[in-house]
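> run fold UDP-N-acetylglucosamine diphosphorylase
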Amino acid sequence: MTDVRKSFIEAGQSQLFQNWDSLSCKDQEKLLSNLEQISSKRSPARLLEDCQNAIKLSETNSSKDAGAEIQPLPSTSYESLIGNSDKENEYFQVGLEAIGKGEVAVILMAGGQGTRLGSSQPKGCYDIGLPSKKSLFQIQAEKLIRLQDMIKDNRVEIPWYIMTSGPTRAATEAYFQERDYFGLNKGQITFFNQGTLPAFDLSGEHFLMKDPVSLSQSPDGNGGLYRAIKDNKLNEDFEKRGVKHVYMYCVDNVLSRMADPVFIGFAIKHGFELATKAVRKRDAHEAVGLIATKNSKPCVIEYSEISHELAKRRTKKVY
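> ok
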């Protein structure tokens, strides 16, 4: 345990031990144990370095950077199906065939609480005000059932992986159990937790304390999904089930087409390893991001990062 304390002090985090002498022996052990859990995966120095790099990347990753070259994606990388019913039907059949073979799974990112919605429950439990009073979870479960019913020649159960967090895991599982999994088979649903990361001050130079014996931690966001897939061995489960394609979405996207056969068929037909779906922008200043390239690399430019000049551009060469 002395090595744990030493590693944090050497990383410039002596503030974590400013109350050390006033702590009981039990609380001293608890503090060191909590710090050890944090540092067992990555050293304090590495965590700080990662945070600093993220801050630098954020500062330089704005489209307002005069030196950045923002251009549309290559024409071979995207397609619009608006007004193209033949292509839409073609992709639909390809996607539906993959679903019928059991090759498609769905991942739902549902780790958040409904705090901003005025609810203490997991966000997926929220009643969005429909006459039916159905929650987000119920709406999405019924979409999955409907899609399964579309497979006429084979009884298929689409695996549904639901990412929760520490504060929402128990409540989410209880919600599904109390409602008999909304008619789905319990065995096709897998709950798993997203990871957490320690919180830093705005400079990214110091860890923040939750209380005298533990660091403040927060869920690692949607970007932590891939680590969570690895840590929870979901990739091994994909292989065991024969899953080749995974459709991912966020719980508050109530309009999401679960395991959308058209979208999946599009990705399969073109051999894309990764694909994303977007709505067409209605006007220059609509608050939606852009999928484009920055310095010849694919990127997403948030609407808050788009300069006024860039937002108005309409030429074929540059957004």
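The chain has three domains: 2-59, 63-80+280-319, 84-275.
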